[in-house]
Amino acid sequence: MCLFWIFCVYQDTPRYISISLNKKLDYSVPIIFVPRGINKQTAPAAIKPTTAVKTEVRKLVQKKAPTVMVAPKVATPIVAEIKKPEIKPASSSAKALADKPIKKEVAKVEPEKKIPVPAKQEVAKIEPPTPVIKPGPIKKETVKAPESSPIAPPLAAIIPNNAIVSDNYREVEALRRHAQLQNEIVKCWKPPFGISPECACDISFFVSDAGKLHDIKVTKGSGVVMYDISARQALYAMNMPKWTYGKQIIINFKQ
Amino acid sequence: MKKIYILAACTILFTTTHAQNDTTPITVSVSHSNVQQTKMPIAIIVLDETNNILDTMATIIKKDLQFTDQFAVSIEKLNPQTIKKQLPKIMKRLAVAGAPFALCINSNSPSTIEWRLYDTMQPTMIAGKKSQQKNIIMRGWAHAIADNVWKTLTNNDGFFSSRLAYCKDSKNDKGHTIRKVYITDFDGTNEELLVDLPTITIAPRWHVKKPQLFYSEYADTNVRLVSISMKKKRKTISSFDGINMLANFAHDGKTVVYCSSRGDGSCQLYYYKNGKLKRFTNNTGNNVSPIFLDDTRICFCSDYQTGSPQIYIGNIETGHLQRITQGGYCTSPSYCPKTDMLVYHMMVKGTMQLFTYNFTTKEHKQLTTTAGNKHEASWSPCGTQLLFAQEEKNSSRLVVLNLLTKKTKYLTSTNEQCSYPHWGPCYPVFPVVA
């Protein structure tokens, strides 16, 4: 079965690559693959955390907080961060669970010291007690902390909010390829001024094994010659990605 | 055995998927919202560098196309002896340089002109025409070619052959202000004086079928409606007491509507159809600026309901009236049949601004926000440009607003007082004052 699975992954047929024309995706956002079996709350080691995430982890370490379940947007909630370590009603067992991993993380984060974050100031901020906090909801958080892996940050903290996340390998691969093609076209296509926003045209072509374009045809014209030719001109100017070699492609240019 | 079955299944799948590779195209959708827009490069190639007429025509076509802000135009001249050798090389060079269009113009005789529009990358001819005419004005000929090229490339009707009419103030010998009617090309060049009387003449309007203007002139007892041809032949159309002005023709060119007070105090609308003059409005307000939307519907401005002018649509057969503006101070409607849109003026914070009304979506949209009152907006024949008069400090200038690029162009200078602009249609013959 393993062989069969590898075969299926390798055979990325065009049928699976094509995406609905009406599906308006923002190709500029990160496209992230998360295998189906993996819980999104736990972090896979394969995905590299961004520097922002690393600094976040470091902040959490400095706070000596029960950690990890804090959302990625941590630039503002300093007050909230301060509150958490002050939790007096939290059970000692939970504290113990939360404290252990912190030491490990400190060891990991050490090389990150170059990042100019005023750690001392933050620690100073953390110290003043804030007795306003109600004990109820905090208990829940402290209970949750040990559930997630204390070593790696959670995936929720790594994946940007605008990212396209999928557990379908083919879809992710197709999206990445489309994003690659889209970026290449955006570089080369300069549509003319003053064309109606409803204008759209389909251009089909074949990419040879050497990456050259053949049989370029406007299969569905926009009715505006200038628009169609500007789209075709972009194709001549662009460098086709290698995955398109030897394939027949139809591109729908629209506004 | 299991392994053998799996391998067999894999082989079958492999072959089928490879078969699909060849037939099923990959479909990718690309949106250009983030893409930088550009002016489309086009080269005008004069196929006889010794022909001065062709040279002048190329310059006019270049100016016309550049007026739209959609094209970056260059001119190249070829030696007629070496065209066959040079032309393919030039096409190739243009294609490499990123100019996808080449317009070749040629003339074998003084009364003949030939133009061909090429796609330099294929290279193939997109459109072309050979025309033979006598006693034609060269400028008009060049405008006609520009119209054809623009129509071919953008699918919009051309407007370069059309002309503008407007009024301009001047002083007479006694120092009194008089107002005369002028006509110019679409870009404000080649101004010609059409009505030169020692009185005030206002509100010129083009006929829809023939090069003829209808304007109003101040007489001793009234303001009468007069028509004038390009040969300056004048004819009084309506001379009732009070005012007679702002004639507008239906698409047939025979039915006309205008406003007249007939010494009554309030201005009413009258239309002339099948040899009969009929009164259309009958109310206590002032009804002005009538325009035909089609053969039966008239759009006009009236203050009979609210006291301040509003835009109405009336049916001349049923007499039914419908108000399309709700409040404000709204004046001077102008209709474009190409886009099924109305442009009118409404006062916003003390300044008259341009608004459009879409008959399909029934939506009003503000077009301008700049300082200075705008008056008497008028559509270009293609519906992509708007002409209006804009007040500035001590002057009134003619302005063209390009609705495709949202750019404005001033047609007249700051030391002139220009008013009542009206954009004429494209006539079969380019109209010039005889």
Short description:
The complex is a heterodimer of chains A (255) and B (434). Chain A is of the alpha+beta class and 255 residues long. Chain A has helices at residues 2-10, 14-17, 51-63, 78-83, 92-109, 119-126, 135-144, 155-158, 169-188, 225-237, and strands spanning 31-33, 164-166, 200-207, 213-220, 248-254.
Structural description of this entry:
The complex is a heterodimer of chains A (255) and B (434). By secondary structure, chain A is α+β, with helices and mostly antiparallel strands. Helices cover 41% and strands 11% of the residues of chain A. Chain A contains ten helices and five strands, in the order H-H-E-H-H-H-H-H-H-E-H-E-E-H-E. Chain A has helices at 2-10, 14-17, 51-63, 78-83, 92-109, 119-126, 135-144, 155-158, 169-188, 225-237; strands at residues 31-33, 164-166, 200-207, 213-220, 248-254. In chain A, strands 4-3-5 form a three-stranded antiparallel beta sheet, covered by helices on one side. In chain A, strands 1-2 form a two-stranded parallel sheet. In chain A, strand 3 (200-207) and strand 4 (213-220) form a beta hairpin. In chain A, helix 3 (51-63) packs across helix 5. Residues 1-24 and 41-151 of chain A have low confidence and may be disordered. Chain B is of the alpha+beta class and 434 residues long. Helix content of chain B is 16%, strand content 45%. Chain B has four helices and 30 strands. Chain B has helices at 2-23, 52-67, 83-97, 138-154, and strands spanning 26-31, 40-46, 71-77, 101-106, 112-119, 124-132, 163-171, 177-185, 192-195, 201-206, 212-218, 222-229, 234-238, 242-249, 256-260, 268-273, 276-279, 287-292, 297-302, 310-315, 321-323, 330-336, 341-348, 351-358, 363-366, 374-379, 385-392, 395-402, 407-410, 418-423. In chain B, strands 10, 11, 12, 13, 14, 15, 16 and 17 form an eight-stranded mixed beta sheet that branches. Chain B is globular, with a radius of gyration of 28 Å. Residues 16-22 of chain B have low confidence and may be disordered. Classes of the chains: A alpha+beta (255), B alpha+beta (434). Strand 5 of chain A pairs parallel with strand 1 of chain B, so a sheet runs across the interface.
